[in-house]
Amino acid sequence: MPEFQKKTVHIKDPAKVEEIICGLIKGGAAKLQVITDFDMTLSRFSHNGKRCPTCHNVIDNCKYVSDECRKKLHELKEKYYAIEIAPELTIQEKYPYMIEWYTKSHALLIEQRFQQDKLEEVIRDSDIMLKEGYETFFDKLNEHTVPVFIFSAGLGDVLEEAIRQSGVYYPNVKVISNFMDFDENVDLAILGGYLFVQSIEKGAKHACAGAVAEDQKRMSWNEDGRRCSGPETPIQPDQQWDRPWDTSGGLSAALQNAVDKPLIPGVIKGFKGELIHVYNKHGDALRRTEYFSHLKENSNIVLLGDSLGDLVMADGVSVENILKIGFLNDKDLEIDSDPTSTSKTDSLNKFPTDLNGQSAIRAHDAVVFQIDESLEKYMDLYDIVLVKDETLDVANSILQKIL
Ligand code: C5P
Ligand code: MG
């Protein structure tokens, strides 16, 4: 296959790869399934020399996140991403730091009260991009109804919207990821800078609108359920405002309508289910078992990932042949291309001291060491390693043979 001649392709054991591919070809579409990571595997790591965002970065960098919060998120990324990719640390050592990173960054997103109805715009305006050849990849797999399992430690809402906007969110695609939990039954409205809570029970005889704002003002709604510009009456710090509405139409009907079709869109209040981070992709037993239990016949697997944490995505799945393709991205782009840059030194020095056995190494040496060591490690663990490859050409050429 000519795609295998590309400079980006590194294979430790070509005979083994050939044998696996022959097994995949023999099984054809009926036995095949694809298990893939999303960020930096299906999505691009860089484009025209510029780093592309992860799902999280799409939200971090959007206009609905305050500058102060963005700064905090970037500081977290600088510290924890260095740990995520550090070859000298074991997965066990990295694990608690990943939980710390996700916990802190997700808490910041919740604090920002991100609104569900902004997702489409935010993703459209972002630089997130799927790898070259994504159309062929998804079209072909859909055409042959090959199950595609996207298992991502990114943000499910962002990745689903990204593949939807790219026109490839086909019915054969199943996404498991971190999904935002938007408040829908209780609309939390930030209007004019004031926070009000309207709690409306479906089917209740009356709706109560209780307003307890930080500035101790109360507010009212007009007929279409939106805030009216009427006078705001200051209330006492411990005073609640609570009154039944007439159910015979008017405001009450508007509020009831708002329950069925919220006029004020959902605001993030947390995340659904178990946290998926970069190094616990063997976990989330329930959701994975449910999905894979229907796919016992699909024991020929093409696995795509970019992290060593992605290698366990098929653990527990019945396997006859598995081909693991790993993208090794350009680590130089991660930090900065200037070897004497203090940002490299800074990020390396941000390692927790108990883990930072390498801190005496000059920053540049450490980064070079990281790339070399990663390639060796990646070649031991992935059957095919694609270095700085922003295309799905290799995967597509293999699929072409199988399907
Ligand atoms: O889809 P995938 O599993 O690759 O998504 C995880 C990626 O999200 C990680 O590579 C990590 O660097 C990134 N991430 C991020 N910001 C966070 C948490 C994770 O960019 N707050
Ligand atoms: Mg990834």
TrEMBL record:
InterPro entries: HAD-like_sf (IPR036412), HAD_sf (IPR023214), Pyrimidine_nucleotidase_eu (IPR006434). SUPFAM superfamilies: HAD-like. Keywords: Cytoplasm, Hydrolase, Magnesium, Metal-binding, Nucleotide metabolism, Nucleotide-binding. It catalyses: a ribonucleoside 5'-phosphate + H2O = a ribonucleoside + phosphate. This is 5'-nucleotidase. The keyword Cytoplasm applies. Its EC number is 3.1.3.5. Coiled coil: none annotated. It is found in: Cytoplasm. Pfam families: UMPH-1. Its main location: cytoplasm. The lineage of its organism: Eukaryota, Metazoa, Chordata, Craniata, Vertebrata. Belongs to the pyrimidine 5'-nucleotidase family.
